[in-house]
Amino acid sequence: MSAQRAETVPAKGFDDPVFDGQATFRAAMWALARPGRVEAVSAALEPPAPLSREAAALVLALCDYETPLWLDARLAGVPAVAAFLRFHTGAAIVEDPREARFALVTDPREMPDFRVFAQGAPDYPDASATLIVQVEAFGDGLTLEGPGIEGRAAFGAAPLPADFVPRMAANRALFPLGVDLLLAGAGGVAGLPRSVTVKEG
Amino acid sequence: MSAMPAITYNFAYLDEQTKRMIRRAILKAIAVPGYQVPFAAREMPMPYGWGTGGVQVTAAVLGRDDVLKVIDQGADDTTNAVAIRGFFEKTARVATTTSTREATVIQTRHRVPETPLREDQILVYQVPIPEPLRFLEPRETETRQLHALAEYGLMHVKLYEDIARHGHIATTYAYPVEVAGRYVMDPSPIPKFDNPKMDDCPALQLFGAGREKRIYAIPPHTKVRSLDFEDHPFRVQRFAKPCALCAATGVYLDEVILDDKGGRMFVCSDTDYCNTRQEEGHRGEMSGASPSRQPFPPRGEGAEGGALHLSPPGRDRSEAAGEGASGGEVRP
């Protein structure tokens, strides 16, 4: 452990924490307000692999000592990632996904069931997890409906778990409970809040 | 040695941790439209009731390139609007405007602008009492249960009692709405005239209540339905005459008392809309007779001197009659 600690001088964070944080938040805000539309994330970061620049920017913009953070197995295996995130945000890294306010998923195909994360309570539906899911590309293949969308919108991202549509349907059925997704990658972020209905085609 | 730096604020006054906390609340508010997200509202350098909630939401979303407009009952030139505009000019150095079209962020007290909003705009409402059921059920634990169970019968009873007593729904402002088919929400004390503008609005609508420590939101293009009954459908106020200055119809009018002999006029509540129309050459029946309109006072005065500037002559707004229940209103 001590050898690892010595080598983890964390990579740099935002060049300008105030304005990079604000711009990244605004991208996440518009992404959740207009599900499926990809908003640009431009902050210059060099986080340790396999954490992507876009996902790292979202964590740095939104997390701090008040937000326990859960890392998927691929990230948890890289101590430099936890060191980087702890150093820049002060967030506690938790092993129990139920305790997490934010969860970082870099391997979406192996993404755990949404039910392992906090779903919120009927009188406090906001007490639910936000999943930051790292993807490689955005595209189409899915149709979205719901608040924030005029009519319907085409959306797609890769990679996603094979059972993504039934997962999102189960999440939607819990409304107003459920988790919210921020898909990060390819220079942008897209939002899939719990209010969205995801269909094939 | 360089001179001592002048006292500076963090961008937009709030510290970064506070902004992150508010931003997280905004994200959850967007994900659950109409649900009131609790947040740790801070003390602001203005008293509760003057828009501390709206100011904190604006501070959390504001960026360097934003253009900010602040309105108070539709007017850009009243004390609350001038002071808040000055506050952000001083603490964020953002550009400000009185034009609805130029603005990217519009903070509002009790009106929705008449000019249709665009999808790149954010409308931030100042909210005094966010809980629509509060005057029917004072206990927070109970109202929270009612929202959890979507049990809104109380609100319908209240509207029904209006009909039993007055023959029509007498609620004229803060008229309750149902958002995205789930949560009943207080639209803040906007006149019910503005309720239809919230439905399917292309802009993002954020609501901040500072004293009550709640944030809620309506995403763009979201269904917002004013509560009503099949035999007593929701109707907005109508006015007998057009605006006396710009002849606009189909807009919300304020009553202005002209003298102590019963003289009065009805003018647009939205000053930017009215000014724009007059610049375009529209003339109302009293545009010649009314005192000449003053140009807007210089920006930022609210933050500089601290002196209160009263409205220019002829622009006094009557706020009486229960805010929004304008005297010129004609009941259908």
From TrEMBL, chain A:
Superkingdom of the organism of origin: Bacteria
* Gene3D superfamilies hit by this protein: Bacterial phosphonate metabolism protein PhnH
Write the record's keywords in alphabetical order, separated by commas. Lyase
* GO molecular-function terms, A-Z: lyase activity
The record's InterPro entries line, in alphabetical order, gives: PhnH-like_sp, Phosphonate_metab_PhnH
Q: Does the keyword Lyase apply?
A: yes
Put simply, this protein is called Phosphonate C-P lyase system protein PhnH
Q: Which organism is it from?
A: Ancylobacter moscoviensis
- This chain is encoded by the gene named phnH
